Amino acid sequence: MIKDVTLGQYFPGKSIIHKLDPRVKVLLTLVNIIFIFIAGNFSALGLMTAFTLTAMLLSGVPFTRYIRSIRGVLFIVLFTSVLNLFYGGGTVLAKWGAVQITTGGIRNAVFIAVRIVVLILMSSILTYTTSPTQLTDALERLMKPLKIFRIKVHEIAMMMTIALRFVPTLLEETDKIMSAQKARGADLESGGLISRVKALVPVLIPLFVSSFRRAYDLAMAMECRCYNGGKGRTKMKILHITAKDIVTVLVAAAVCAGVVLLNLFVAENFLI
Amino acid sequence: MDYLQTQNVSFSYDEDESGLVEVLKGVTLGIQKGDFVALLGHNGSGKSTLAKHFNAILLPSGGKVYVDTMDTADDSLKFEIRKRVGLILQNPDNQLVASIVEEDIAFGPENLGVPPAEIRRRVDSALKAVDMYDYREHAPHKLSGGQKQRVAIAGIIAMEPSTIVLDEPTAMLDPRGRQEVMDTIIKLNREKGITIVLITHYMDEAIAANRVVVMDKGGILMDGTPKEIFSQVEALKAHRLDVPQAAELLHRLKEAGCRGLPNGVLTEEECVAALELLLKEKA
Fold it and tell me: What are the tens digits of pLDDT across the range A232-258?
């Protein structure tokens, strides 16, 4: 059961989005997320939405997957937009005591909902088209300047790599220990919250003990393979910025400029 | 001096309650380049401890270990030694670092600072050597135990060592995985001339070696070819060690009064041939 958990949401493919340099993807996703917030009216937000939808189409990842990613946050989307329903001016449509629904409120609600959904979709494109290893690799390279502040960038990236590597292994082990404890009569599935948490102790202790043993083994195996920190290390895969990346950056820059222009020149701005 | 050489090596560690525990007591052993040596002994005989001396993971408390004339106690030679002698551990899961097979294999050469194009070449050639090339983009946790252990071996091969020390590499595998790993080890020794030191519990694996060294209580008990060692069935049994099944069968037949059986039979084929001969003579 636990074994079926897939790590990350990577959807292997060979689309143009998959082939972009992961560093470019990470940076563009960040910038685009900022611009989704900067977009202050429906025209600007519409432009960002169109851009996101185009990227989704190009990614070759089935739309059902994207819909699944929204489903997880559906409650937050509904909650925030319903709250916004009651704010804003304009014509009053319905009124119960102090609470009223106005045209402006509806507009706000729709705006917020679209904004959050586009935000989720934008970050999903990154996680669907970039493998966890590519992501850590990109982060290691992007964080390299932080070395001046004595932040151990290589070590952090190495820890992320090892963590990603061992999540499935430890899940499998948890499963095994839970079965072993159940076979000894442990009751892991009934009772209130406190008794359930207590019941997890006999699962967590063996898991911890074995993790330390694994860590000891892994450290030895890494030493056997001449690991000596980040010093003098090379990489098999080098990241190259290609024409694709440059074009993508230019298109994204144009979209962002468009958002700023639409913000300035379209009158129906509202500041949220 | 041999390629791998231990001179009167002793090793002990401090155990809180029982004081100093002596694991190795003056082991002198030379292993030639290109040889295939099986190291036998039951739990606590010191064989795993000895294995970790060959690539400076452990340093002797007394005596010396030399690898290609380099003293393992010299800290500045540590990486040169580990480049030459790779170590494979029992649990394949705990040896793999990255979540993609080919990136894991690249880990060793990356540490050595090998240029990227050369790493790519080494990774591909190591994957082909262990017959895992088709799995290069897989996640390690989705492989079988035997496949994982072969990936671990490829990770060592990519560093282009002259020797691989394997510490019970098949102990956690099913029979099929065991066979895969053994086939890979034999192939590496015969085709690439890599020196193999195989530590094992399974006598049937030891007969693939050219030389068998039996350890007991921190010292060397017997040293010889598989035929020489496994014909001494009584001596091995006295030290609670098994013999290959074929040798065991013929030994029991002899004990039961069956005469005319040859000594030093190790494999099933040899056993069948010997029994056939005996039956024909009887008829």
Answer: 888 888 888 889 999 999 999 999 999
User: How many other CB atoms are there within 10 angstroms of residue A79's CB atom?
Assistant: 11
Best residue in A137, A171, A225, A234 for a mutation probing chain B (most B CBs within 10 Å)? A225
Interface touch B86/A224, C-beta < 8 Å: yes
Q: Find the residue in B nearest to A230 (Cα).
A: B111
Residue A19 falls inside a structural domain: yes
B96 touching A (Cβ < 8 Å) = yes
- B154 contacts on A by Cβ (under 8 Å): none
Residues A73 and A160 in one domain: no
Instruction: Please tell me which of the candidates A131, A161, A234 has its beta carbon nearest to residue B116.
Output: A234
Q: Does B113 touch chain A (CB under 8 A)?
A: yes
Q: Which residues of A touch B (CB under 8 A)?
A: 7, 131-133, 161-162, 164-165, 168-169, 172, 213-214, 217-218, 220-228, 232-238
pLDDT computed for residue A268 by the predictor: 63
The answer to the question of residue A231 being in a domain is no
Residue B202: both structure tokens together: 């399974």
Residue B238 counted as domain residue: no
Half-sphere exposure of B180 (CA within 13 A, CB side): 18
Complex ipTM, two decimals? 0.86
Q: Residue A104 in 3-state DSSP?
A: helix
pLDDT band at A2 (very low <50, low <70, confident <90, very high): very low
Question: What are the DSSP calls for chain B, one per residue?
Answer: --SEEEEEEEEEEEETTTEEEEEEEEEEEEE-TT-EEEEE--TTSSHHHHHTTTTTSS--SEEEEEETTEETT-GGGHHHHHHHEEEE-S-GGGG--SSSHHHHHHHHHHHHT--HHHHHHHHHHHHHHTT-GGGTTS-GGGS-HHHHHHHHHHHHHTT--SEEEEESTTTTS-HHHHHHHHHHHHHHHHHH--EEEEE-S-HHHHTTSSEEEEEETTEEEEEE-HHHHHT-HHHHHHTT----HHHHHHHHHHHTT--SPPS---SHHHHHHHHHHHHHHH-
* Position A8 confidence tier, pLDDT thresholds 50, 70, 90: low
B155 shares its domain with B28: yes
CA angle B28, B33, B35 (to 5 degrees): 85
Q: Which domain holds residue A120?
A: 9-143+239-265
Give the residues of chain B that fall short of pLDDT 50. Answer: none
* Gap between the Cα atoms of B97 and B140, Å rounded: 9
- Of B93, B127, B151, which to mutate for an interface test with A (greatest number of A Cβ within 10 Å)? B93
Q: What is the pTM of this model?
A: 0.81
pLDDT digits (tens, 9 = 90+) for B128-148: 999 999 998 888 888 999 999
User: What CATH code is carried by the domain that includes residue B85?
Assistant: 3.40.50.300
Please answer yes or no on whether A7 and B99 come within 8 Å at the CB atom. yes
Verify whether the Cβ–Cβ distance B111 to A217 is below 8 Å.
no
Is the domain of A195 the same as that of A173? yes
Which chain A residue is nearest to residue B117, measuring alpha carbons?
A236
| Domain count for chain B | 2
